[in-house]
Design a protein that fits this description.
268 residues, alpha/beta, Rossmann fold, binds 1,4-dihydronicotinamide adenine dinucleotide, binds D-galactaro-1,5-lactone, NAD-dependent epimerase/dehydratase family protein, NAD(P)-bd_dom_sf, NAD, oxidoreductase, Epimerase_deHydtase
C-alpha cells in the first residue's frame, strides 16, 4: 500500500515549511519534528536528533520518513558530526527498531560539489559521477548516502537519497538557474520517492526541468518524477544583476558554487 503517514524531520526549516504546505495535497498526513518549535503547529514534536527515545516514539507507526533535519550549510566539523552524521545514524536506528519501511533522505549536490560544472551545451552530470564533497557538510551527506546503502543491504530499510540542487521559492543566483528545484517539483519528487516500488537504495538528483540544468534526472524520472518547472523565466533578471558565470572564478567553476571556497561565500 502507498504510504500515507509520513514523519517530516526538519519541519521548521525552509524546505520543511514549503513541504508542510505542499505534501498534504499529494495525500499525506504529516507528523512534524524539529528541534525548534513551529508556530501554529502545537502537535509538532520538538526533539533533537540526539534524543534516541524521542526519535523512537516519533517514528512509531509511520509509513515513511522524509529526513530533512540537520545543518544545511557548512559549519565546524564537530557540529556537522553531531547533527548530520550522528543525528542521521540515530534516526536510521530508530527507523530500523520500529520497522519503518522507507526513508527519503535530503542529500545534497554538495556530495559532488567539486565536480566541474558542465559548460553550456555539455551534457548534465550523471548521478553516478564520483563523489567529490566540497565541504564537511557535503561529506556528511555522503556519509548519509552510505548509511542508507548499509541499512538497505543489511536491514532491508529502503531509501531514496535525493541530491537536492537548490530548492527555494525562486532561484537567487545565476548558478541556481542550473540547480533550481521549484518547491512544487520538490513535492512531486518526494511523492515519487515515497511511492515508487522496489527502490532499494536509489540516488537521484533533485531539480526542475531547467533549460540550463547541470544535474541529470534519469534516475529521478525512473521513479515516476515528471518535473514541470524551468528556471529560465528568472534568467534575464539574474544575469543582468550578477553577470554570466565566469569559468576563471573558482567560486563559479564547480557544481557546488561558492561552497568550494574556504570559507564558502555568498552567492552560492
Ligand atoms: P534549514 O536549515 O532551513 O532547515 C533545517 C532544519 O533542521 C531546521 O529547522 C533546524 O532546526 C533542524 N535541525 C537542525 N539540526 C537539528 C537537530 N540536531 N535535531 C533536530 N532538528 C534539527 O534547511 P533547509 O534548506 O530547509 O534544508 C532541509 C534539508 O535539505 C537539510 O538537510 C539540507 O541539508 C537539505 N538540502 C536542502 C537544500 C535546499 O536547497 N534547501 C539543498 C540540498 C540539501
Ligand atoms: C544545499 O545543500 C543547502 O542546504 C542549500 O541551502 C543551498 O545552499 C543549496 O545546497 C545550493 O547548493 O544551492
Amino acid at each position: 500500500p502507498a504510504p500515507r503517514t509520513v514523519l517530516l524531520t526538519g519541519a521548521a526549516g525552509g524546505l520543511g515549511t514549503l513541504m508542510r504546505g505542499l505534501l498534504p495535497d499529494h495525500g499525506y498526513e504529516l507528523r512534524l519534528l524539529d528541534m525548534r518549535p513551529i508556530e501554529g503547529e502545537p502537535d509538532a514534536i520538538v526533539a533533537d536528533l540526539a534524543d534516541r527515545d524521542a526519535l523512537r516514539e516519533a517514528v512509531r507507526g509511520v509509513d515513511a520518513i522524509i529526513h530533512l533535519a540537520g545543518i544545511s550549510l557548512e559549519a565546524p566539523f564537530e557540529k556537522i558530526l553531531r547533527a548530520n552524521i550522528e543525528g542521521t545514524y540515530h534516526l536510521y536506528e530508530a527507523a530500523r527498531e520500529e520497522g519503518v519501511r522507507r526513508i527519503v533522505f535530503a542529500s545534497s549536490n554538495h556530495v559532488v560539489g567539486h565536480t566541474p560544472r558542465p559548460a553550456p551545451g555539455e551534457p548534465p552530470v550523471p548521478v553516478e559521477t564520483p563523489r567529490r564533497p566540497d565541504t564537511f557538510y557535503g561529506l556528511s551527506k555522503s556519509f548519509g548516502e552510505d548509511l542508507a546503502q548499509l541499512y538497505w543491504d543489511k536491514h532491508g530499510l529502503e531509501t531514496v537519497s535525493v541530491r537536492i540542487g537548490s530548492c527555494f521559492p525562486e532561484p537567487t543566483s545565476v548558478r541556481m538557474l542550473s540547480m533550481w528545484m521549484s518547491p512544487a517539483d520538490g513535492a512531486r519528487l518526494f511523492h515519487a520517492a515515497l511511492t515508487a516500488e522496489d527502490v532499494g537504495h536509489t540516488v537521484v538528483h533533485g531539480a526542475s526541468a531547467n533549460t540550463r540544468l547541470w544535474l541529470d534526472l534519469t534516475s529521478a524520472r525512473a521513479l515516476g518524477y515528471e518535473p514541470r518547472d524551468d528556471s529560465e523565466r528568472y534568467a534575464e533578471k539574474l544575469i543582468a544583476e550578477q553577470g554570466e558565470l565566469d569559468p576563471d572564478n573558482r567560486a563559479q567553476a564547480y557544481i557546488g558554487g561558492a561552497f568550494v571556497t574556504d570559507p564558502p561565500i555568498w552567492p552560492y
